Amino acid sequence: MHVPDGFINAPVSVATGAVAAAAVAVSLRGARRELAGAGAGGVAGAERTAPLAGLVAAFIFAVQMLNFPVAAGTSGHLLGGALAAILVGPYTGVLCVSVVLLMQGVLFADGGLTALGVNITDMAIVTTVVAYALFRGLVKVLPRRRRSITVASFVAALVSVPAAAVAFTGLYALGGTADVPIGKVFTAMVGVHVLIGIGEATITALTVGAVIAVRPDLVYGARGLTKPLELRTSPLATPADEPTPADEPAPAAAPAPAAPAPVAPRRSVRRVWLAGVAAALVCAGGISYYASASPDGLEKVAHDHGIDAKAEDHAAKDSPLADYSVKDITDPRLAGGLAGVIGVGATLAVGTGVFVVLRRRRNTGADEQPATAERPSENV
C-alpha cells in the first residue's frame, strides 16, 4: 500500500506530513516509557527491549518483501502495524513502521518521498492505533491465556488493513489528483484489502504466537500473563500453623535466617535476537525471490480505476537499490537477495540506533529524578 508521488496533491501531502511529524514526536516520548518499562524489572528491562524493537523493524522490512497472491492478478504484503504494536508497544510500533517506510523510500524507491507523510499516516499510525485499540479491548474480555493473545492479534491485524484502506480513500477524497469516483475507490480498496488482511492476520498471529511460546515476557501485549516470582519454603520446614504432636517435645526456638529478597532472573535475549535476525535474512535474502510478482492491492486498484493517471517518477529511481535489486548485477536472484540483505541490515542498524538513544535518554532521566526528589528531605 505504498503510495507513490503524484497520487495525492501537495496541500494534503503537506498536511499529512505535519500529522506524521507530530505523531512521530509523540511516539518518541511514548516509546521512552515503553522501552523503560516493557520488561520485568522496569528500566533494566529496557536493556533488552531496544535491540528487540530494532529487530522488529528489520523483520517487518523483510516480510514486506514477501508479496502473497490474494486474487487474480493481485498480491498483498504485510503492513506490520499490528505486529509491531503487540510485540513492542504502540508508540514504539509507530516508530518501527516509520523507520521501515523511510528506508524503503530512500534506498529502494518504494513509496514516494513527497508522499512519505501519507504513507506514515496510513501505514504506521492508522494500522497501529486501530490494531492496538482493538487488541487491548479483546484481551480485556477474553480469558487470560496465551491463546487469547494470539486470537486477539489475529483479529486486530485483520481489521487494521482495511482500516488503512479506508484511511487512504479518505485522503484521496481530499487530495486525489485524478478524477475518480470515490465510491468506486472505496469499494475496490476495502474489498481487496480485506483479503490482504487475512494474510496480515495470519503472519501476525503466527509471529506473536511463536514469540509467546518461548519468551512471553518479551511480548508487550502479553504483560501480566507471566506469573510473579514466589518464594517457596523448604519442604523440610514445619509450617507455623501446623500443631506439634502432643507426645513430642516442642522444638527449641531458633532464629530464622533472613530470607533473601526475591530477584527476577535475568534471561538473555541473545537467542531470540539471533533467531529473529536469521529469519529476517532468510525471508529477505532467499524467500523473497519466490514472492508474487503481481501488483499489490493499491497498485492494482490504481491501474484499474485510473488513480495513477498523474503518478510521478520516484526521486530515487536511479538508486543502486531501486526496486529491491542491486544495480549492475545481472542474476535476478542474487541481485534481489543481496538487496534484501542490505535492507535488513540497514533497517536493523537505524532502528536499533534510534531505540538505543531513546532508552539511554530515558535511563538518564530516571537516574537524575531520585536525586532531585531527595533534596527537600535533606532540609527537614
Automatic annotation (TrEMBL):
Principal location class: membrane
Keywords: Cell membrane, Membrane, Transmembrane, Transmembrane helix, Transport
InterPro entries: CbiM/NikMN (IPR002751), PDGLE_dom (IPR025937)
Location of region: Disordered: 231-261
Membrane topology type: Multi-pass membrane protein
Compositionally biased residues, Pro residues: 246-261
Domain PDGLE: 270-360
Transmembrane spans: 7-28, 48-66, 78-103, 115-139, 151-174, 186-214, 272-291, 334-358
Localization per record: Cell membrane
Pfam families the record matches: CbiM, PDGLE
UniProt cross-references to PANTHER family, sorted A to Z: METAL TRANSPORT PROTEIN HI_1621-RELATED (PTHR34229)
Name listed for the protein in its UniProt record: Energy-coupling factor ABC transporter permease
Taxonomic source organism: Streptomyces decoyicus
